[in-house]
Amino acid sequence: MAPPPPDPVEQLYRDLETKIREYRPKDDLAPLERAFRFARQWHEGQTRDSGEPYMVHPVKVALILAEMRMDVVAMETGLLHDVVEDTSVTLEQVRKEFGEEVAHCVDGVTKLSKLDFYSAEDRQAESFRKMLLAMVEDIRVMMVKLADRLHNMRTLGFLSPERRERIARETIEIYAPIAHRLGMGKVRGQLEDLAFQYLEPDAFREIVTNIESRRHSNEEFLEEIRHTVESELRREGIPARLEARIKRPFSVFHKLRRQKIAMDQVYDLMALRIVTDSVKNCYAALGVIHNKWRPIPGRIKDFIAIPRPNLYQSLHTSVVGPHGQTFEVQIRTDEMHRVAEEGIAAHWKYKEGRKGPAEDDQRIAWLRHLVEWQQDMQDPGEFMSTLKVDLYPEEVYTFTPRGKVIVLPREATPIDFAYAIHSDVGSTCVGAKVNGRIVPLRSSLRNGDVVEIMTQSGHQPSKDWLAFVKTARARNKIKHLINASERVKAIEIGEKYLDKEARRLGVQLGRVTKSDFDRVAGEYGYSKMEDLYAALGYGKFSARQVLAKVAPEVVADEPEESKPTGGAAAEPQAAPAPGARQQDGDAVIKVRGLDDLLVYRAKCCNPIRGEAIVGYVTRGKGVAVHSKLCPNVQSLMYDVERKIEVEWARAVEEAFPVRLVLLTDDRPGMLNQLTSAISDENTNIRSLEAKTAVDQDGGIVEMTVDVRDKKQLEKLVAAMRRISGVRDVERLFK
Length: 734
Ligand code: MN
Prior knowledge:
Blueprint: H1 8-23, H2 30-43, H3 56-67, H4 72-80, H5 83-86, H6 91-98, H7 100-109, H8 120-137, H9 140-154, H10 161-181, H11 185-199, H12 201-236, E1 240-246, H13 249-259, E2 270-276, H14 279-292, E3 294-295, E4 301-302, E5 315-320, E6 326-333, H15 334-342, E7 350-351, E8 354-355, H16 362-373, H17 380-391, E9 395-399, E10 405-409, H18 414-421, H19 423-427, E11 429-434, E12 437-439, E13 451-455, H20 472-505, H21 514-523, H22 529-537, H23 543-550, E14 589-591, E15 599-601, E16 613-617, E17 623-627, H24 631-636, E18 643-644, E19 646-648, E20 656-664, H25 670-680, E21 684-693, E22 698-707, H26 710-722, E23 726-732
Parallel strand pairs: 2-6, 15-17
Antiparallel strand pairs: 1-2, 3-5, 4-5, 5-6, 7-8, 9-10, 11-12, 11-13, 14-19, 16-17, 16-18, 20-22, 20-23, 21-22
Helix pairs in contact: 1-3, 2-4, 3-4, 3-9, 4-7, 4-9, 6-7, 7-8, 7-9, 8-16, 8-17, 9-11, 10-11, 11-12, 12-13, 18-20, 20-22, 20-23
The chain binds manganese (II) ion (MN).
Manganese (II) ion binds near residues 57, 81, 82 and 148.
């Protein structure tokens, strides 16, 4: 009888075992084999788009994991990663058969069910969120996902063009950057080149053709260089292993597009890598190279002294070689080389109670932060865009005045820098100097910039900052503070509003017990009264509605009140958000009987002192005060419940905003001195912007301050003029 035909899937599995034996000779592979049999049984009869048995895919994923020298749990997960998503196996079954760790990892890589979400976008975002959460607990989740993606990219050609494009885009936008953040240079490079081929087929072909046409001469050139370097290093007694490489297609493409240059202007198209034994010899080798060939200024990068955030370390230099050819030299130790290629997987070792890298490994610290912040992000779309921005691999290296390195994404601003130092520094930032010169807060930072942040205590972040900050950290902190202060205002408004209505309707709130309040809050779906106050302040309900529930015997819940109150269209004036400072002269208006309600003048009629006025409780923005003659009042007042009586206050504690412009010397400490002079005069700064006046060789500072009267203004201006370096102070009228 003829032997049965060889089974290719079985053969692949044997290859996997052989590979594992090479680096984990003592591990028990019985659970791995069980996972293989289990997955194979459930995927039986399924095929991939290539026509192969489905099981080829999970085994190849496990093989990629073996190349990364991962442990048995990771490879079990690799074999089982699609059973929950694509067969009728439940997670419970996986847990029972293979234990908690494998189940957790399988769960992490399983997409959410199509039934759970309406849109594909939301489903994608929520699946990512789930995966990232699982990965924070166990980095193997991401290793399996990356291996899965790598194999899918290698076999992408069998899919329809639409799916191909979607998967390739997701790969380049999310998975390749994640691999980069984790320092996994090898995986990242493969993912990028595979995705590039499908996303930009024309550019890909052009670059590959170009590289190929020069390959022969380039390789000859590299061979010549390699010989020279080898003998030079030997003569100096520096042990080294040399590798020559031609830049990857995607890497070339990226550079051409970013720097808008032509192929022959790419200095590092060809590179020689020197791998030596010690840091000392890295610098010694750099000396040898620079002694032999002229370095190109500005192209020497010391990532040994300043490692990249993903812990990549190496020395880079570009030099002009024989025949005027430029090439790059990368110099690193063996250890650095492993980290550059394998990243977080380089030192991956499963120990009891520790699943992978140390807690404080900065390669996943960013992810922990992201997962923390994402709790504030309700909108899946927002989560995805934050994730993409945060994954963006380009970075700039900036410094504090004391020389500490702060790594930021490209185009990051001084505000991002300030938040990277500390959230308090960010929130109280009023100005910034870059390399000793005052710059606008929205300007972009560049490599090597020394950034000095001016702060003023009590300063609040501005909503405008959201338009230009680049880091998720700054964005989230700013949003958080703005939301928190808006909520405080809303609670305040809600409380006053309820109080005021209670008086009008004769409800004695003092007699209502806390538990009654909580019951009413509960009827509106809130766990505490504070939340209901906030909802009232945001204009979600009317005070009368609430009072009808609090004291039904006094207040009837009239039918017309059940319709939504107000309506955005009924509020034509552009009201400021509660977080904003009060409008000009707001303090001069008082709500009768309640003097600390948030009030502002309606922009539509901007009533002046002495005029007959009327107040209207807006949706979460406080009380808008209109002139009684304002045409909007008539249409607004159909909702009589929101009408509130207001009157001009007698007090003269008014603060007027005054705009000042200063011409100063451009020197360190100037802004600090100015802001402290202002606070010495008990004056509030509303806004401050500083810029460099190149034509006058100095700085221009524009600010708006609140002053009570002319006398205070004169004192303030005098104090500013006394500061040495202040050349002129002028008041702006506008
Ligand atoms: Mn898969």
